[in-house]
Structure prediction request, 313 residues.
Amino acid sequence: MPDIMAREGVHPETPPLPFTPGWDLVGVVDRLGNGISGIEPGQIVAALPIHGAYAEFVCLPQSELVPVPSGLDAAEAVSLVLNYITAYQMLHRSTTVRPGQRVLIHGAAGGVGTALLQLGRLAGLEMYGTCSSRSAPAVSDLEGIPIDYQHQDFVKEIRRLTSEGVDVVFDPIGGTHLWHSRKALRPGGKVVGYGLRSSLRGEGLSSSRPGRRQRFRGTALFGLYIAAGWLLPDRKRVVPYSIQTLKRLRPELFRQDLIALFDLLQQKKIEPLIAERFPISEARRAHELLGRGGVTGKIVLVRDGSSLESGVA
Ligand SMILES: NC(=O)c1ccc[n+]([C@@H]2O[C@H](COP(=O)([O-])OP(=O)(O)OC[C@H]3O[C@@H](n4cnc5c(N)ncnc54)[C@H](OP(=O)(O)O)[C@@H]3O)[C@@H](O)[C@H]2O)c1
Prediction:
C-alpha cells in the first residue's frame, strides 16, 4: 500500500518525479564498493530503501543491508522488511502489549494487518479486526474476531463485544477515522495511527490533487488528536508510528527487530501470507489488484526471469 500512496503522491516520503517506486526488497549482492568488507557478492540481503526497489539493480550503503539467513523463501523474507517490522514495532515499541490485553486492528486482512494478527497471537492478545466480509475467514483463521467495516459500526461492535473497550487500536486509515478509533478505547488506552488510507478512494486513486493538500490535512488532524489525548481527562492517547522516522532516529532498532523477525520466521512461528507473486514487469497489474481491495496478505514482485516460487522479491 505505501507504494500506491507514493504513486498517488499522498505519502510523505514521496520523492520528486520521476522516481522508481519500491519500498522494501530482498536481493543478491552483485558488486561491492571500494573498501567494503564484511559482506560478500552473492549474499542475500534485505533493505528498506523507501524508493527504488522495483529496479533490477540498486546501489545502497552497506549500513542499509541486513543479511537474510539462508534457507528462507525470498517472498516471505521480504514481507518482514516493511509489514512485519511495522507490526512488531507498533506492538512492542510504540506501546508495550501484555498477554491478555485487547486490541483492535483495522485493515486486519492486509499486509500489516495479518502481520499484527500473527505477532499479536504470539504475544497472547485478544484481537478484533476490521475487514470486508470477503476477508473475514482469513482474519478468523489468524484468531482475530472479524468486524465488517463496510456494514457495521466498529465502535458499537467493540462496545457490544467487550463492554469497556480495547487497550490499543492500530489505525492505518487516518483522518477523522482516528477519532472513531479513540472511541473504541477503554480509559487509559492508546490509538497507534500509522497511515492515511483515507486519502485514497476506490481503485487506490487519490481522492483529490495535489497530494500535498491531503497530507497537510491528515497531519493537521493527527496533531489535533494527539493534543486532545493529553488535554482530555479520559487518558486516551493517540500516538503516531512511522517506520522511516524510527529507522532514521534509531537505525539499530530496525536491524535488531528485523533479525528477531528472521529468527521467528526460521522457527516457523510466523508465516507471512503471500497473496500473489507477480513479475516486476507486471507491477501495474499488481497495483490494480491491490487498489481494488480484497487482497489477503502481501503482493510480492519478483525479478523478471527468476522462478516465481523462489525468486528474489
Ligand atoms: N507508518 C508506517 O510506518 C507504515 C508502514 C507500513 C504501512 N503503513 C500504512 O499501513 C496501511 C496498510 O498497508 P498494507 O500494506 O497493510 O495495505 P494492504 O495490504 O493494502 O491492506 C489494507 C487493508 O485495509 C482494508 N481497509 C480498507 N479500508 C478500510 C477501512 N475503512 N476500515 C478497515 N479496513 C479497511 C482493506 O480491506 P479490503 O481490501 O478487504 O477492503 C485491506 O485489507 C497503508 O496506509 C500504509 O501506508 C504505514
About this structure: The chain has ten helices and eleven strands. The radius of gyration is 19 Å.
